């Protein structure tokens, strides 16, 4: 029995919650996965996994063994990288997840630069705004806008994104263009509901050192960025969003910036990954490339500084 291979199979079963999913992920026959685990349990003399009709979960011994396996396998990968060409030429599959807007508008258009630099890394990219269980779903790294809520993950800051206040031309024609925050009393907003925390977001403005929340009447609340923009374009009220996501609509005139001289708080863009992945050379080079990408001008994350906020 190849013990390191058995450990790799065992950790993937724990992370994905099933033999079949682990076999598919590792591109191994399912029978081979079952045999390896039986051999591993016989070798150790303990039961590592509890099997039910619905799921597979580690026993107490299995959970303890999983933690040790993760550390050993990570140390092995890093040690091999130090003494091999993988440090200069990392290879293998990198599973990443990010909001669809960041993926479509910023990361994927620039991705040929990364794959040309690291041709032996194969990328699997998930695009959604929903929370991801990195361990159970086998995801190596996620990009998220806003504050990082999971303190168990390593957080690498990428950028502070400029935000703008937006409305559709039809909405402004019906309600009127506000000239100041006082004028917002006659307006409506689209409410954004975080699919991660369930928190509801209205509008916020930065006035000097003061952060002022403005909650307007609403008829629509959504929990995705695409739905947020669609509701705004349909005339349901004001929204606030990262500038990069609104660049095309502003250029085309399908959305209009409202109160351009009234500052909106910036939004953090962060890369998150499990602690046991921080030694992975694939994760390292990808996150380093993201830092480089986000620092380039013209990507829409930062725009020309607007005039100072209007004091009320």
From TrEMBL:
One of its GO terms (molecular function) is DNA-binding transcription factor activity. InterPro entries: LysR-type_TF_proteobact-type, LysR_HTH_N, LysR_subst-bd, WH-like_DNA-bd_sf, WH_DNA-bd_sf. It holds the Pfam family HTH_1. The keyword Cell membrane does not apply. Residues 1-59 form the HTH lysR-type domain. Gene3D superfamilies: 3.40.190.290, Winged helix-like DNA-binding domain superfamily/Winged helix DNA-binding domain. GO terms for biological process: DNA-templated transcription. It comes from the Bacteria. Keywords: DNA-binding, Transcription, Transcription regulation. Belongs to the LysR transcriptional regulatory family. PANTHER family: HTH-TYPE TRANSCRIPTIONAL REGULATOR, LYSR FAMILY TRANSCRIPTIONAL REGULATOR. This is LysR family transcriptional regulator. It comes from Pseudomonas cremoris.
